[in-house]
Design brief:
heterotrimer; A mainly alpha (about 70); B alpha+beta (about 350); C mainly alpha (about 220); B: about 350 residues; elongated; C: mainly alpha; 8 helices; about 0% strand
Chain lengths: ~70, ~350, ~220
C-alpha cells in the first residue's frame, strides 16, 4: 500500500492545486480550455510521481548492491 | 521485446502529434446562447445570438435559419452583426408550422463564408394555436437559403463541453491504456500458471501496477473534466465513475493479496489466479453494468460509447493515435519497472 | 469414481458435517435475527426502497459469514488428503452447490423473519424469489472462490472482505434493481434483460472460478 502513496499524493495535490488556482470563472474562461490544461498537468504529475517512485526504488537497489 | 527501443520511441512522435494537433485544431463555430428560446407563429421578432469561435466581422455575408430538418426551414429576414461573436437575427414566423403538434422544436443554424456554419440543435420552441401542417410544410419548404458554407478542419462544438472536447485525447485513452495493461497482466498471469516462471509473475505485477496508475489518473482527469461540465467532482449518480472506482479497488486488493504471502512461489501462483479472476470481474464492472443504467457519459444506455453521434472523423484522426500513444507509454513505463525488479531478483539470487 | 459421483459424495459430506455440528446454520441464524432486531428497533416503517436495500445488505453480510467458513475451516492435512483423492473441480463444485443450498435456506429464512418483523411489501413473489435464487448462486460462487484464495493466507478473515466485496458489487447492484421491480412503486419492462445479465454475471464468475481453482488447490 505504501508503494502507491507517493503517486496518489502527487495526483491529489495537483487536483487541489488546480482547484485553488482558479475559481470556476477562471476555469470556465476561454471556452474552458484551462480544464484541458489541468488534465494535462494532472497526467504530467502522475507520470512524474511514478518516476519518483521508480527513482527511490532504484536508489534502494543501488545501496543494496554496494553493501 | 522489453529491451528494444523502437516501440518506446514510437510513442514520442505519436503523443507529440496528439498533443500538438489535439490542442491546435480549432473548434467548429458554435452557438452558445440566444436571448429567447420560444416564439409563436405569426410573430416577427429579433433575437440576439451569441456564437463561439466565429469571426462575423471578417465575413462577407452572415446567414441564419430556423430548421426542422434538412428540407423544412425558414431563413432569417435580417442578420445584424454586432461583433465577432454576437449577432442580432430577425425572424418572421409563418402562420402555420410544418407540424401537427401544438409546439415543435427547431434548430438554429448560423452560417457565414469565413467560418462555415454552426448549429444549436433542437433548442428553439415555436408554439402554434391553429394547426395546418400541409400549408405549413409548403411555406417552410419554399424559403431560399442557398447552400451552407463549408467549414475547415475542426473538432465538433458541443454546448457545455466547449474546448474540453479535447480531453477525449487525454482522459479517454488512459482507460484504454489501463485496459490493455490489465489485459497484458492477465495474459502473463495465465502464462505463469502454465509455466511456473517467476519472470511471468513480475511482468504481471508491473503491468497491473502501471495499469492502476493509469486508472487513478483516469479518475483524477475525469474528476477535473466532470467539475467543468457537470459542476461536481464526484457524483454517486454517475454509474461509470463509481464502477471504475470499484474496478480499481479490485486491483488494489491484488497488491494487498501479494503482501499477504512470504513464499515467492505461493505468492506468484495465488496472485496470478486472483489477477485473472479480477480481470473478469473488472470487465463486468466497466463494460456490462454501465450500459444497463442511464449515465451522464456519452453513449450510455445501450449504445456503444463512440458512435457516429459522439465522434466525428476529425476527432477519430487524433483519438485513435492517442490510444496507441498512451498505451505504448504505459508499457514503456512498465518495462522500466520490470527491469528494476529483474535486477533486484538477480542480486538476491546471487546473495543466496 | 467419476467427477459427478465425487461431487455428490463431497456434497453429502458437507451436509452430514453441517447436520452433525449445526455450527454454521445456528451462528448465521443468530446473526440474521440480531441484525433484523436492530433494524426493527430503529426503523419501524421503512418504505419499499429502504426495505429492499436493508434486506440485501443483511443478506450480503450473512452470505459472507457463511461462505468464509467453506475453506477456512479445512485444515491443511485434510486438504492434502482430498487432493490426493479427488478432482479439484469436484471439490469447488460441491462446495459451491452446498453453499448455494445453505444460502438459499438462509435467505428465505431471512426473508421470512424480515417480513414478520418489518412487513413484506413484495408484490411479485415469482420475481423476488428468482432474485433470491440468483443471489444465493452469485454470492455462493464468488465467496466460495474468494474464500479458497484467502484461506491460503494467514489473516484470511480481513482478506476475505478486501477481496470479496468489490467483486460482488455488480451482483448486488443488479439484485437491488431486479428485486426493486418486485416491489410496488416501480416498473421496468426490460427486467427480463436484467435477470439474464445477472445470470450471465453468475455464470461468467463461476466459469472463471472453475477454470482457476485447480491452480489454487495444488500445494
Amino acid at each position: 500500500m505504501k508503494k502507491f502513496l507517493i503517486v496518489l499524493f502527487s495526483i491529489l495535490w495537483t487536483v487541489d492545486l488546480s482547484a485553488q488556482t482558479g475559481n470556476l470563472d477562471f476555469m470556465h474562461s476561454t471556452g474552458k480550455i484551462y480544464v484541458v490544461i489541468a488534465v494535462l498537468v494532472a497526467i504530467f504529475f502522475g507520470i512524474i510521481g511514478f518516476l519518483v517512485y521508480l527513482e527511490r526504488k532504484l536508489t534502494k537497489l543501488e545501496s543494496l548492491i554496494e553493501d | 521485446m522489453e529491451n528494444k527501443l523502437w516501440w518506446k520511441l514510437l510513442c514520442v512522435p505519436i503523443l507529440l502529434y496528439v498533443i500538438i494537433v489535439g490542442l491546435s485544431v480549432p473548434l467548429s463555430p458554435g452557438i452558445t446562447s440566444m436571448s429567447q428560446y420560444t416564439a409563436y407563429t405569426g410573430q416577427t421578432f429579433t433575437v440576439s445570438v451569441a456564437t463561439y469561435n466565429t469571426f462575423h466581422t471578417k465575413a462577407k455575408e452572415v446567414k441564419a435559419r430556423l430548421r426542422k430538418d434538412t428540407s423544412l426551414f425558414i431563413a432569417a429576414q435580417n442578420v445584424k452583426v454586432i461583433d465577432d461573436n454576437n449577432i442580432e437575427v430577425t425572424f418572421s414566423i409563418p402562420t402555420f408550422l410544418p407540424s401537427s403538434k401544438k409546439q415543435e422544436r427547431f434548430s438554429l443554424d448560423v452560417d457565414n463564408d469565413f467560418d462555415g456554419y454552426g448549429t444549436l440543435p433542437g433548442k428553439f420552441i415555436i408554439k402554434q394555436n391553429n394547426i395546418d401542417s400541409i400549408v405549413g410544410a409548403k411555406v417552410w419548404k419554399n424559403t431560399n437559403f442557398g447552400n451552407l458554407n463549408k467549414r475547415g478542419t475542426n473538432f465538433p462544438f458541443r454546448g457545455l463541453l466547449f474546448e474540453t472536447i479535447r480531453n477525449t485525447f487525454f482522459h479517454v485513452p488512459l482507460w484504454f491504456g489501463m485496459l490493455f495493461l490489465f489485459l497484458g497482466a492477465t495474459w502473463n498471469s495465465f502464462m505463469y500458471l502454465r509455466t511456473q516462471d517467476q519472470d511471468r509473475d513480475r511482468r504481471a505485477e508491473v503491468m497491473t501496477m502501471v495499469g492502476l496508475v493509469f486508472g487513478l489518473l483516469g479518475i483524477v482527469t475525469g474528476m477535473l473534466w466532470a467539475k467543468a461540465t457537470w459542476g461536481t467532482y464526484w457524483t454517486w449518480k454517475e454509474i461509470k465513475l463509481n464502477m471504475t472506482a470499484i474496478a480499481l479497488l479490485i486491483y488494489f486488493a491484488y497488491f494487498v493479496l501479494r503482501n499477504a504471502f512470504d513464499d515467492l512461489e505461493k505468492r506468484a501462483r495465488i496472485a496470478a489466479v486472483y489477477n485473472m479472476f479480477a480481470f473478469v470481474a473488472a470487465l463486468i464492472l466497466i463494460n456490462v453494468i454501465p450500459r444497463m443504467t442511464d449515465s451522464l457519459h456519452p453513449g450510455s444506455g445501450g449504445n456503444p460509447a463512440f458512435g457516429s453521434e459522439d465522434m466525428d472523423n476529425t476527432l477519430r484522426m487524433v483519438f485513435y493515435p492517442a490510444i496507441i500513444g498512451w498505451t505504448l507509454l504505459g508499457f514503456w513505463i512498465a518495462t522500466i519497472y520490470y527491469r528494476a525488479l529483474n535486477i533486484e531478483e538477480k542480486y538476491l539470487e546471487r546473495e543466496d | 469414481m467419476n467427477t459427478i459421483q465425487e461431487i455428490w459424495f463431497l456434497f453429502r459430506k458437507e451436509l452430514t458435517l453441517e447436520f452433525r455440528q449445526k455450527y454454521a446454520i445456528s451462528g448465521i441464524l443468530l446473526y440474521v435475527f440480531s441484525t433484523i432486531f436492530v433494524v426493527y428497533t430503529s426503523t419501524f416503517d421503512a418504505d419499499p426502497k429502504q426495505w429492499n436495500i436493508l434486506f440485501w445488505i443483511i443478506v450480503l453480510f450473512a452470505s459472507v459469514n457463511t461462505a468464509t467458513k467453506s475453506f477456512v475451516q479445512e485444515s491443511g492435512s485434510s486438504q492434502l488428503y482430498y487432493y490426493s483423492l479427488v478432482n479439484p473441480v469436484a471439490i469447488i463444485i460441491s462446495k459451491m452447490l452446498y453453499n448455494t443450498l445453505l444460502l438459499l435456506v438462509l435467505n428465505f429464512l431471512a426473508y421470512g423473519v424480515f417480513s414478520l418483523v418489518l412487513g413484506s411489501p413484495v408484490r411479485d413473489f415469482q420475481l423476488f424469489f428468482i432474485a433470491i435464487f440468483l443471489a444465493s448462486l452469485g454470492f455462493s460462487i464468488t465467496f466460495t472462490f474468494i474464500s479458497a484464495i484467502s484461506s491460503k493466507a494467514d489473516n484470511s478473515a480481513s482478506l476475505m472482505a478486501i477481496l470479496g466485496f468489490p467483486i460482488v458489487i455488480p451482483i448486488v447492484m443488479e439484485l437491488v434493481k431486479v428485486s426493486q421491480n418486485a416491489l410496488p412503486g416501480s416498473f421496468d419492462s426490460a427486467i427480463n434483460e436484467d435477470i439474464m445479465i445477472l445470470l450471465a454475471i453468475d455464470l461468467l464468475l463461476g466459469g472463471a472460478a472453475l477454470m482457476l481453482f485447480p491452480f489454487l488447490w495444488r500445494d
